[in-house]
Specification:
Elements lengths: L18 H26 L7 H25 L4 H30 L9 H73 L3 H18 L7 E3 H19 L3 E7 L7 E3 L4 H12 L6 E10 L2 E8 L7 H9 L12 H12 L4 E6 L5 E8 L12 H6 L21
Parallel strand pairs: 2-4
Antiparallel strand pairs: 1-3, 4-5, 5-7, 6-7
Helix pairs in contact: 1-2, 2-3, 2-4, 3-4, 4-5, 4-9, 5-6, 6-7
């Protein structure tokens, strides 16, 4: 672990944040404990206090030998496992033999002059030193392999996070061509009908919406306030075509304005409501966007007063809601499902049900998360003053079946 290069951020590893420091602390602490145990063992066996001198020499010898062993191990630790095992055993056996010779010398020179081990005493000395250095070797490799595994895990997590972010961005950018497809069709219709002013107004609002869609956090998240502003821009575009037939209302708790969710997540749902609730009806429909905090969850509902899942158009919506919002484009609601899975895994709900007394209601339930998004903020009052709340309030209630999986 000494002099190992820090290839990843070790800030989360605590003690091993600085590997050189950790090595010296463990090395010094371990051999100090070894000296204490040997000294206490000798004193407990009524040995003379002069026994402490050879014990200190032996400890210093072990300390020095393990430094040499660490230098050798650092050079072989990246080799194939079998080679590491063989070379480590050779180094360990050689160091143990040298350690035992030096221990015998220190004991005879400073504690029992003239003493020479005989028979089993040789084996006992070698086994003791082999056990001590073997334990040190085991700790050395164990800690180093743990750190290598932690670094590899950190790299894999970073790669997985980057892949997930890329997937979220890809799903997010899928919305732009899908949205452009529908909007440009509407503009083309206005041009063919020679409604130049309305076509120009729609183009201007389209430019504003696309400008917003290009601005966002790197991870593709937005606040509820920003998402509401994006919906306002989109509804302004749609209102150019539908005028008073499109009636919208926002019911957003002020405290959830800074809650985060994947950006442009709600726009395809509103687009779906316009397609199946507003377009087929001469009287149009109401669309209500509701967002509130429930415990540690952010719960968003988007309801319309269209035919729901029971009418002909509603049946078409229900049949295609998991696949596409517009013919020929495999995005929309399916995109939302995939983005929620990528962002939250299983920790989310995305459900559809008939609204009461009529219409369709979409429920999104995700973890409540906030962050400081800087000065780019929108308040509930700003949404009210924008003129995006049109028409009389529409009663929206979650049906009893809304908690089921669809």
């Amino acid at each position: 672990m000494q002099d190992q290069d820090n290839t990843t951020d070790l800030a989360t590893r605590g003690f091993f944040r600085d590997k050189n420091r950790a090595f010296w602390l463990l090395q010094t602490g371990g051999w100090t404990a070894y000296f204490g145990l040997r000294a206490l063992s000798g004193l407990a066996n009524r040995m003379e206090p002069s026994f402490l001198l050879p014990t200190a020499i032996i400890t210093a010898t072990g300390f020095s030998l393990t430094l040499l062993m660490a230098a050798a191990y650092r050079r072989i630790i990246t080799m194939p496992p079998l080679r590491v095992l063989i070379l480590s055993l050779i180094i360990l056996c050689g160091a143990s033999a040298l350690f035992s010779v030096l221990e015998v010398w220190a004991h005879r020179a400073f504690y029992q002059p003239g003493w020479t081990p005989h028979g089993i005493e040789y084996l006992g000395a070698i086994l003791l030193e082999f056990s001590v250095l073997g334990a040190w070797t085991g700790f050395y490799y164990g800690i180093n392999y743990y750190l290598q595994l932690a670094e590899q895990t950190a790299r894999m997590v970073a790669v997985a996070r980057q892949a997930n972010t890329a997937q979220l961005e890809m799903l997010r950018y899928q919305l732009n061509p899908h949205f452009l497809f529908n909007t440009l069709n509407s503009i083309s219709t206005l041009v063919l009908l020679r409604q130049t002013e309305r076509a120009n107004a729609m183009l201007s609002r389209l430019a504003s919406f696309l400008r917003y869609s290009l601005v966002g956090e790197r991870e593709g998240l937005a606040t509820i306030a920003q998402e509401a502003e994006a919906l306002k821009l989109y509804l302004d575009i749609a209102r150019t075509r539908f005028e008073d037939r499109l009636r919208t209302r926002f019911d957003i708790e002020p405290r959830v304005m800074e809650a985060r969710l994947p950006s442009l997540l709600l726009q395809p749902i509103v687009e779906n409501a316009i397609k199946y609730a507003v377009t087929p009806s001469e009287d149009g429909a109401d669309i209500v966007v509701d967002a509130r905090q429930m415990g540690d969850r952010l719960v968003i509902t988007i309801a319309d007063t269209g035919p729901g899942m029971n009418g002909s158009s509603g049946n078409a919506a229900a049949a295609g809601i998991g696949e596409a919002v517009a013919p020929g484009t495999n995005v929309g609601i399916a995109n939302i499902r995939e983005r929620l899975v990528q962002a939250y895994g299983a920790d989310h709900r995305f459900e559809l049900a008939n609204n009461e007394p009529q219409g369709l209601i979409v429920l999104i339930d995700i973890p409540y998360q906030t962050t400081n998004m800087g000065n780019d903020r929108t308040t509930a009052g700003e949404i009210d003053r924008s003129g995006d709340i049109l028409g009389a309030p529409t009663a929206v209630a979650m049906p009893a079946t809304a908690n089921q999986d669809f």
